[in-house]
Design a protein that fits this description.
- The longest helix has 18 residues.
- The termini are far apart.
- The protein is 46% helix and 13% strand.
- It is flat, with a radius of gyration of 19 Å.
- Bound molecules: FE2/S2 (inorganic) cluster.
- FE2/S2 (inorganic) cluster binds next to helix 4.
Length: 173
């Protein structure tokens, strides 16, 4: 009997799937997106946990976008774009850096770990850096575990979500 219980426990332990984080990457069309592409072309491996969303400029990534990704089930979000001096829209990358500060506040207000979000400036030539950042982020979030945000949690209270966004990071047209 005891043997049977041990075997069942073993089987359960074996069959438990390892947590694989879902990470959304907002990548600028002009630098980080090509960096992701070049990493693949150069056979630099990085985990397949990422879903890349191409944006024209990192400055376009409103904190609300990141929040939405998190409440829709992402365990982490990476916002990646050009270095300040390379941004094709002059102030986009700088604006993104300012927005990121607001984003950190939102994440704190939601009670999430700050390591669930990350901002990086990665040029097209820095594709090894892109692969490294993704590897680091996947490892980091594996340690944290799944996001404590219940999928769609904030949407149960639309008021709460809109209040947070409006207070910390109003969406600009
Ligand atoms: S164009 Fe890449 S961050 Fe602005």
């Amino acid at each position: 009997m005891e043997k049977k219980v041990k075997e069942t426990t073993k089987q359960k332990t074996k069959s438990k799937p390892q947590f694989e984080p879902r990470i959304v990457v907002f990548a600028c069309n002009w630098c980080s997106y090509p960096a992701a592409d070049a990493a693949g072309i150069n056979r630099l491996q990085y985990p397949a946990n990422v879903r890349i969303i191409r944006v024209m400029c990192m400055g376009r990534v409103d904190p609300g976008f990141v929040l939405k990704a998190l409440v829709m089930g992402a365990d982490g979000v990476l916002v990646s774009g050009c270095h300040f001096e390379d941004c094709h829209y002059s102030f986009g990358a700088r604006k993104a850096a300012e927005q990121y500060k607001k984003l950190e506040k939102i994440v704190h207000m939601l009670g999430l770990e700050k390591e669930r979000i990350r901002q990086e400036f990665i040029s097209a030539a820095e594709f090894p850096k892109f692969a490294k950042v993704v590897r680091e982020m996947v490892e980091q979030i594996k340690k944290l575990g799944p996001s404590p945000l219940e999928r769609g949690a904030l949407y149960k209270d639309q008021k709460l979500e809109s209040e947070i966004i409006e207070e910390v990071a109003p969406v600009t047209p």
